[in-house]
Structure to design on (663 residues):
């Protein structure tokens, strides 16, 4: 971050060169990045063992019993190492001690294992009740047992340089995560379906779960579903053998689904040893930062769908459209609360909200024939709107935000996700400038400088309203190529990278005015009444007549004074908040099935296909987005969205390939 664009970083690759040497690196507050690449390592291995055993027995023509046991066992190990820092006597005496001081090597060893075992048992079958009526059924239960264990140990005081063994250290070893978790989910279910002449069907399902992550009073929950469908092209004789309409189906369902959005042991206070303990023979413990709630209940989603599916022109054109509405109740959210409580984060069934919209897809197969080849095309579109229906005590609920970032620089903005009744699920709460009733930024009449508002504003939405997907493909003979494009729009995001870039002077935004004084755009000056202390009155601030447009008062310092100033720039979250719209090439897949004349015809091998795959290859964003991929989020849990920080890894492109052998 503290690197100007004209710094020749490539010249520092040689760590033994005059200025590539750790002690002589030009930057007083950062380390040569090539030293970090060469001396900080993370290595690991994960082994997975997946098994599945199934036994079937037919008791009668329409009664079959099935027992299935499936397991997924994972065993991992890793080692994180930091090389020792050895600086010259001159650097130790004259340079910033935070960066340029001698430090021993450090390492952390990690061993972890996890297991998921699923045991399913059920009866199934189908039977014709008459010539026109038939039914099918499944009735049974399941047990899922999940276990996890992780143990870490290390030391930051290794005695021998570059020997990463915690047995060769001074002082006590550092014990990191030492966690064990186990939970069990037991379920019982039934699925019963009826069909009339093959073109009308109705299906009823019901399931009850018992989840050990909840208290005994709340761990049992039931959720049913009913769905129905009618194939009109089969039911109505006049629609059969139609060259225009090949297939027409109407369908709908009413459903309820349950979910437990919790990790094990979140209902009670848990304790761990903080850094520095055990201290000799003295043990010390601290609570975790999340306030437990023993009365948490399952989340439920109540949904309704109504749709149509049709094929035209001998199945060349396919259309599928669905209207949906969902009510999400008892959503478990991490909510921010005062540190004075001892728990800065709480868990609660804190919000109910509604989703509604339409989704559909169009398939053209083929779109057009090109010589011996063909081009196929598929498009899907989803419009999804949402609104918060209620919150805990009907008060705004702060879900999470910049307080959860790995680190915040002094003068960084404040921004949160927030649930507010009547607004989208969820909105953003953020710091902003002082503004007049028309929304213009108010600047000082003498210095031209803006100021930070004392209150936070709420605006925007975290989830996209529109998602479009386009999948064109071309195939000829044994060769095929397909790509998946995606467009998302209607939502916003915040990038903490912007504030840090401005502070370091490396952002395009901070160079917009050539580092010269400028008139703050769309600003105004307050000229209304003030009290005896020279402070504008509340009545005066509320009256637009007390403001005049600023056309000539420039900021007093257009260089670092403005761009690194907290109240003038870097603490203002709205400066780094914008549209999350993006086009991206999600995936490109090229495959070729080798002709048998290349590999030799065999009775065993039926097909050999070689594929090359690329993912996240291209990204196009609006010009206003100077910060990168809007989908990057600081947290993968807690229902937070659209919040990024400069401590996240940049977006990555993935390249791979496969060889598929069909026997």
């Amino acid at each position: 971050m503290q690197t100007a664009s004209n710094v020749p970083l490539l010249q520092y690759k040689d760590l033994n060169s005059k200025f590539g040497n750790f002690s002589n690196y030009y930057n007083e507050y950062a380390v040569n990045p090539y030293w970090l690449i060469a001396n900080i390592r993370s290595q690991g291995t994960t082994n997975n063992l997946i098994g599945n055993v199934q036994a079937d027995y037919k008791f009668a023509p329409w009664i079959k019993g099935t027992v299935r046991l499936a397991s997924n066992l994972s065993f991992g190990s890793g080692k994180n190492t930091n090389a020792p820092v050895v600086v010259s006597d001159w650097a130790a005496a004259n340079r910033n001690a935070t960066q340029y001081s001698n430090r021993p090597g450090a390492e952390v060893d990690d061993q972890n294992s996890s297991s998921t075992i699923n045991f399913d048992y059920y009866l199934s079958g189908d039977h014709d009740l008459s010539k026109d009526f038939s039914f099918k059924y499944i009735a049974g239960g399941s047990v899922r047992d999940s276990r996890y264990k992780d143990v870490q140990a290390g030391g930051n005081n290794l005695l021998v340089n570059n020997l990463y063994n915690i047995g060769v250290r001074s002082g006590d070893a550092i014990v990191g995560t030492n966690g064990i978790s186990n939970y069990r989910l037991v379920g019982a279910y039934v699925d019963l379906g009826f069909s009339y002449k093959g073109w009308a069907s109705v299906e009823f399902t019901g399931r009850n779960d018992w989840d050990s992550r909840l208290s005994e009073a709340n761990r049992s929950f039931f959720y049913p579903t009913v769905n129905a469908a009618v194939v009109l092209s089969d039911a109505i004789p006049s629609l059969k053998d139609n060259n225009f309409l090949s297939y027409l189906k109407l369908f709908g369902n009413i459903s309820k689904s349950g979910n437990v959005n919790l990790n094990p042991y979140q209902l009670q206070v848990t304790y761990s040893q903080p850094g520095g303990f055990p201290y000799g023979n003295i043990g010390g413990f601290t609570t975790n930062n999340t306030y437990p709630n023993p009365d948490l209940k399952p989340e439920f989603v109540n949904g309704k769908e109504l749709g149509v599916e049709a094929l035209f022109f001998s199945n060349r054109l396919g259309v599928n459209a669905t209207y949906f509405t969902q009510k999400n109740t008892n959503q478990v959210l991490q909510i921010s609360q005062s540190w004075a409580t001892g728990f800065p984060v709480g868990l609660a069934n804190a919000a109910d909200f509604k989703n509604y919209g339409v989704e559909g897809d169009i398939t053209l197969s083929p779109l057009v024939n090109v010589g011996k080849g063909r081009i196929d095309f598929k498009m899907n579109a989803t419009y999804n709107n949402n609104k918060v229906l209620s919150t805990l005590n009907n008060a705004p609920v702060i879900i999470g935000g910049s307080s959860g970032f790995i680190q915040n620089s002094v003068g960084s903005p404040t921004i949160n996700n927030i649930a507010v009744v009547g607004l989208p699920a969820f909105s953003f709460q953020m710091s902003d400038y002082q503004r007049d009733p028309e929304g213009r930024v108010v600047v000082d009449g003498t210095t031209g400088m803006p100021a930070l508002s004392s209150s936070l504003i709420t605006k925007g939405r975290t989830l996209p309203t529109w998602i479009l997907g386009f999948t064109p493909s071309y195939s000829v003979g044994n060769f095929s190529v397909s790509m998946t494009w995606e467009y998302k729009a209607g939502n916003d995001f915040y990038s903490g990278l912007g504030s840090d870039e401005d502070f370091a002077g490396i952002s395009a935004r901070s160079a917009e005015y050539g580092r010269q004084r400028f008139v703050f755009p769309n600003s105004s000056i307050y000229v209304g009444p003030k009290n005896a202390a020279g402070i504008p009155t509340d009545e005066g601030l509320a009256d637009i007549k007390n403001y005049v447009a600023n056309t000539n008062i420039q900021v007093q310092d257009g260089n670092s004074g403005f761009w690194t100033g907290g109240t003038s720039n870097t603490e203002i979250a709205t400066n780094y908040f914008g549209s999350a719209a993006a086009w991206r090439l999600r995936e490109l897949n090229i495959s070729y099935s080798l002709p048998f004349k290349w590999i030799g015809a065999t009775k065993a091998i039926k097909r050999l296909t070689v594929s090359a795959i690329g993912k996240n290859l291209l990204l196009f964003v609006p010009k206003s987005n100077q910060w990168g991929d809007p989908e990057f989020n600081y947290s993968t849990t807690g229902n937070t969205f659209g919040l990024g920080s400069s401590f996240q890894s940049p977006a990555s492109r993935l390249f791979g390939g496969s060889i598929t052998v069909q026997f």
